Amino acid sequence: MKFLLVEDNIELAQALLARLRLDGHVIDHAERIEDAMAYAQVGDYDLILLDIMLPDGDGRDFLQHHRQGQKDTPVIILTARSQVSDRITLLDLGADDYVTKPFDHAELEARCRAVLRRRVGSAQTVTQLRDVIFDPVRGSLSVAGQSVKLRNRELRLLELFINAPGQLFSKQKLVDRLFSYDEDVSDNAIEVYVGRLRKHLEPSQLRIRTSRGLGYSLEHV
Fold first, then answer.
1. CA nearest to 136, candidates 61, 41, 46
2. How far apart are CA 129 and CA 9, in angstroms?
3. DSSP-assigned states of every residue in 67-127
4. What does the pLDDT look like over 60-93, one tens digit per residue?
5. What is the pTM of this model?
6. What angle do CA 198, 202, 207 make, to 5 degrees?
7. Cis bond leading into 102, ω under 30°?
8. What is the pLDDT of residues 12-57, one digit of tens each?
9. What is the C-alpha radius of gyration for the chain, rounded to an integer number of angstroms?
10. Which residues contact residue 4 at a Cβ distance below 8 angstroms, ignoring those fewer than 6 apart?
11. What DSSP element (H or E) covers 37?
């Protein structure tokens, strides 16, 4: 998954970045509302983690602007405010959930998973296509009855394909989804990850098809 973290507390932000990246997520980080709006305008995110008190304003202004722009990206608020009235206001503005600081990282991760499940309208995380069974939360993959271990970016690449079988993904779209904006990405990085994933899927009834000059798609044999 690709997340946008909007948090000006550097110590907290670094801890969250490390923990979420360890789980295999791609994270862009903004410390100010202005930067967050720029990221949200051009980026395609699965989830936004939003602090309220930011150097250049109130995170609620970002949330309101985001929802007025018809963006349905789930938003979890990171707030030190615990009063019921504050939480009601945040939910009414369009927040999907909130956690009160200080919070346990495991709880935040669980809330992220719950919000993402609600977004796809299911409490299940397991997807099966033909003889491939994939659980992105547990990071497990079974190909033709055999367990396969994936590296983080291989796992996230498969997640994109398996959630949209037949859909064509351009190389730039895959770069945007698998890497944060501050990462230096080589020209053949996507080809390398697609090649690795193809090898994992060889025993299965699924194939990653290349449309020359256009991109890649996951197809049934």
1. 46
2. 42
3. HHTT----EEEEES---HHHHHHHHHHT-SEEEESS--HHHHHHHHHHHHHHHTT-S---E
4. 999 999 888 878 899 999 988 777 888 888 889 8
5. 0.75
6. 60
7. yes
8. 999 999 988 887 788 999 999 999 999 998 888 999 999 999 999 9
9. 18
10. 27, 28, 29, 30, 36, 39, 40, 43, 45, 47, 48, 49
11. helix 33-42
Question: Can you read off the two tokens belonging to residue 5?
Answer: 């973290």
Nearest to 197 by CA among 216, 180, 211: 216
2's tokens: 């690709």
Say which amino acid occupies 76. Answer: I
Residue bearing tokens 């904006």: 181
Going by their DSSP bridges, the two strands 75-79 and 47-51 should be labelled as parallel
- Secondary structure letter of residue 204 according to DSSP: S
Q: Beta 146-148 vs 140-143: how paired, if at all?
A: antiparallel
Tokens 């033709």 belong to which residue?
Answer: 144
CA 53 to chain centre: 23
Which tokens in the block code for residue 55? 């150097």
**Residue 171, CB half-sphere, CA atoms under 13 Å: how many?**
15
* C-alpha–C-alpha distance, residues 157 and 175, integer Å: 10
